[in-house]
Write a structure and sequence with these properties.
By secondary structure, this protein is an alpha+beta fold. It contains 1 helix and 2 strands; from the N terminus they run βαβ. Residues 6-47 form the Semialdehyde dehydrogenase NAD-binding domain.
Length: 48
Amino acid sequence: MSTKKKIGILGASGYTGAELVRLLLRHPRVEIAVLTADRRAGQMMGDV
């Protein structure tokens, strides 16, 4: 099965959200489709 699951992460700029992003970027069957964060709205994730 090679289909990736598309997911969204709420609170991606916080410590837990950022760690989740870091881990899931390496997961072979997950595609991060949406990241949200109130405090960092409009910024690129790499800048956070």
